[in-house]
Amino acid sequence: MSEATFNKAELAKFDGQNGQPAYVAVDGVVYDVTGVDAWAGGKHHGNLAGQELTAVIDTHSPHGRSVLKKLPVIGKYAD
């Protein structure tokens, strides 16, 4: 895993807007969702990139964490 560590404010910069990549954090890991069509513009089913989404993926996502293994890991999340 990369050595990059993101806090809430740093992760928020990667919202998929204005040319920025789109990153999300789940269970302490930051993933790059930039190339995922469903995350176009940094938005996916009402969720926004640049946020910690563990509770969302565990309680509201039909696919759960299974999609995470397909995503590039960018670093760690520590709030």
From TrEMBL:
Ranges for domain Cytochrome b5 heme-binding come to: 6-78
Which InterPro entries does this one have?
Cyt_B5-like_heme/steroid-bd, Cyt_B5-like_heme/steroid_sf
- What Pfam families is this protein classified in? Cyt-b5
- Entries under SMART domains matching the protein: Cyt-b5
Q: What name does the UniProt record give this protein?
A: Cytochrome b5 domain-containing protein
Species this chain originates from:
Lactiplantibacillus nangangensis
Lineage runs:
Bacteria, Bacillati, Bacillota, Bacilli, Lactobacillales
